[in-house]
Amino acid sequence: MLVALLVAVAVSVNALAGGGEPSPGARESAAGRARPTLVRAPRISGAARVGARLVASRGSWRRRPRSFAFSWTRCDRGGAHCSVIVGARSPAYVVSSGDVGATIRVSVVAGNRRGRSRPALSAHTGVIVAATAARRLEYVFNDGSVSVYDIDRQFQLVQTISLPQTEAGIRGATVSPATHMLFISYGGDGGEYGDGSVLAYDLVAERVVWTVRLHTGVDSGAVSPDGSRLYMPTGENESSGIWNILDTSNGAVIGKIQGGSGAHNTIASADGRYVYLGGREDNHLDVYETSTGHVRRIGPLVGGARPFTVNSSNTIAFTTSTGADGFQVSNVTTGKVLFTISFGSVPGGFPFSAPSHGISLSPDEREVYVIDSVNREVHVYDVSGVAHGVAPVQVAVIPVRGLTRTGSERPCAYDCALDGWVQHSLDGRFVYIGDSGEVIDTSRHAAVATLGPLANTRKFLEIDWANGVPVATSGRTGVGHAG
Q1: Order of strands, edge to edge, in the sheet holding 326-331?
Q2: Bridge-partner residues for 200, per DSSP?
Q3: Band (310; pLDDT cuts 50, 70, 90)
Q4: Which residues pair with 5 in a beta bridge?
């Protein structure tokens, strides 16, 4: 009797002290607390129109989630009675004709090593309406102004935008169709060449929304697919190798990424998972993972990373390098160089530090166009088999009239050499050659037009419009869209 009483007392004291095996309910509660918990619901950016590309943010979470699962749903006009859209499980969704009259919501589930969160549901979009005829426009940036051409009307000039503050020298331009914002970096590119600035221009309202002067240089940045983050390099003449992360609502610096020295060119992947960082003074291309903050490296390359492009599945990169006339193909996953293509030796005293200062991948990922400023040509290579071990095959060489060794961009505040740039149109029909001015028909591998302002700049991109808002952009560097 006394032994039984002592055991009962011991069990009671142990329970009060929190010892012993927890109940099944307590175990479940503890596990739930370890899983990601929602701080701010996901949001949808983009136009509520057929053909528009909607982009979902992940929302904000506690407990360090490492993975995110997306599911898009079609709902009634009030955002209720939703049904899952079969196959729509990526961060982006293209509105279809079957969505007209409905609204769209997205559900996000976050996961960490403890498990998966409860689904977090976004607010619903506006009621989806039918699309009107799209306009495809090419924007050409010269210091102080932007010339806008209608691609489908024989490149007729349709608008000129005056931005006098950019007379300090444009370093880069990037567009978020999701928020209809254009971001332009201008001024110094670091080191002895000084600091730079960034402005945000509302393409629909046609006005500058904000301008910030950074205490670093600037260069060619990239905006995240949802339009919330701007990845801005500190400049090719800055040794730190830092990319600043800016809040696109006001231009505030909210984070930093350590990349290669001479932070210069940037591409954000279409799925938002990666940001590619090209440091001019580093013979590697860096890949920043947005979910973890980890940076991995591709290379070594034959020289410092210069203009580059990537495919849509984030598996193959095409790079040019300082001092090399040609390009390289690398495996993004392994970080290893697969092929090196040389156009020939570079003559002594050649004035351009990057003889192949321009490379663009066709949207179908079958061809790359690469500048050869030594011979004033553009080389076209079939790269459709590189992922399977097939070396690039040359299919055309196109003479261009620009890229002269003694000429310069005019007007131009700074860095005015005619060393070139290349960009594909979104439909793959045309290729634009910066610092030369030609518009090349890709079906004929021949120039079909010449744009004067294009012969005086390396900054240009396509923006497609529908129903009065931007719905797509090529970016400055033509990247793959086949995935």
Answers
A1: 305-310, 316-321, 326-331, 337-342
A2: 183, 210
A3: very high
A4: none
